[in-house]
Design a protein that fits this description.
about 280 residues, mainly alpha, 12 helices, about 0% strand, transport, ABC_2_transport
Amino acid sequence: MTTEVVTKQALTTDRLPGSPLRAVEETADLVIRRMRHMRAAPGRLIGVILNPLVLLLAVGYLFKDAIRLPVGTTDYVDYLMPGVALQVGLASVGPTAISVSGDVQRGLMERFRSMPISRRSVLIAHSLADLVLAAVALLVLGGIGLVLGWRPSGGAAGVLSGVGLALVFAYAMIWVGIALGMAVKHAESIDSIGALLLVVLTFLSTAVLPPTAMPGWVRAVAEWNPVSTGSRLIRDAWGTDAPTGGSYPAAHPGVVAAVVLGAVLIGSAAYALRTFTNRA
């Protein structure tokens, strides 16, 4: 009898506000709520897919013969697909930021803050729901890539590893979007910043063009771009042959990607959570 009472008390305590189990339940409930809203507004998915799709069709299909890759490189669509996968993360920054900023302006975030739930769970649920959206976008773009001739040769394990790397990059970018949405009030400003990040980080990298096609100073900057190191890692996972230079980022893409993305993710999440918690 005593054991039964203690067990019931322990289960009740685990679900008290602030307990880890309660926080997990709250996060799951908020993710489901967020996914329902996304299902009612499919334009979010179209917005995330559109830019990578334009890159894939325009550069990877229409103008692929105008781009010369180094000797020993596989088909250009194979070279480009890792960059297309990473652009899903870049394309998520703007829509995520606009959504968060809209929730702030409508007072939804204040209502969440007044409820007896973990404040971290609100933004974490937001990030996880947007990550699901990014995964769906990757699936759609992968299917289109296969139609256009993309053929990964790294096996099932390699394909899954590459997709996992793209999702890690997307998750870091989603937190950049959340932090941007907490910091900037106007949707027009957010849209401009998101578009700038998308264009600059994509084309100032080796995701679209090989480093040998760039001027010296541009190449030095591009090689340290996390889009470049991420593309290199995904190419290795998908079995794409692409010669690289002898720079440190080219020789150690995993180290550079882990340090840069780790700093971006931790910094963005810390700022967003602190701002949400302390907002008057």
